[in-house]
Amino acid sequence: MTTWFHSWRAAVRIARRDAWRSKGRSFLVLAMIALPILGVSAFDLTIRSSELSTEQQLERSIGAADALFTDGHVDGVPLLQDPKGEQSTPAEDYDSANKPWPSGSTDVGKAIPAGSTVLTDSSGSAKLTTTHGLLHTQVRELKAADPVARGIMRLREGRFPEKTDEIAATTGFLKSSGLTVGSTLTARGFDRTYTITGAYELPSDLKAEQVNALPGAFLAVYGQAVEKAGIPKPDVSTTYLVKKAGGFTWNTVQEINKKGVVVTSRAVVLDPPADSEVPLYQKDGWGTYQESAAARAAALAAVGTVVGLAMLEICLLAGPAFAVGARRSRRQLGLVGANGGARSHIRAIVLSGGLVIGVASAVVGTVLALILTFTLRPYLEEYMGQRFGGFTVKPLEILAIAGLAVLTGLLAAIVPAITASRQTVLASLTGRRGVRRSSRVLPLVGLAAILLGGVIALYGSVVTDQLFIVAGGSAIAELGVVAMTPALVGLFGRTGRWLPLSPRLALRDAVRNRGRTAPAVAAVLAAVAGTVAVSTYAASRDAQDLAGYHPSLPYGAVSVLVTQEGGRDAATARDAVQRTLPVDVRADVFRISVGKPGCPPWGGSPGCGRYEVVLPPANECPLWRSAPDGTDPSEKFTKEQRRALAKDWRCKSDPNSGSISVESGLLIADGRLLTVLGIDDPGAARALADGRFVSFSRAQVDGSGKVGVKLITDTEAADRAAEQRKPIPGEIKSFTAYQVPGSPATYGVAGLISPDAAKAAGLSTVPLGSFFTTDHLPNTEQRQKLDGELAKIGGDVDLVVEEGFVSKNSIVLLALTVFAGLVTIGAAGIATGLAQADAEADLKTLAAVGAPPRVRRTLSGFQCGVVAAMGVILGSAAGVLPAVGLRLTEERQEMHFYQEALDNGWGISDTPPYVPVVVPWETLAALLVAVPLGAALLAALVTRSRGALARRAAH
Question: What is the enclosing helix (H) or strand (E) of 49?
Answer without folding.
Answer: helix 23-50
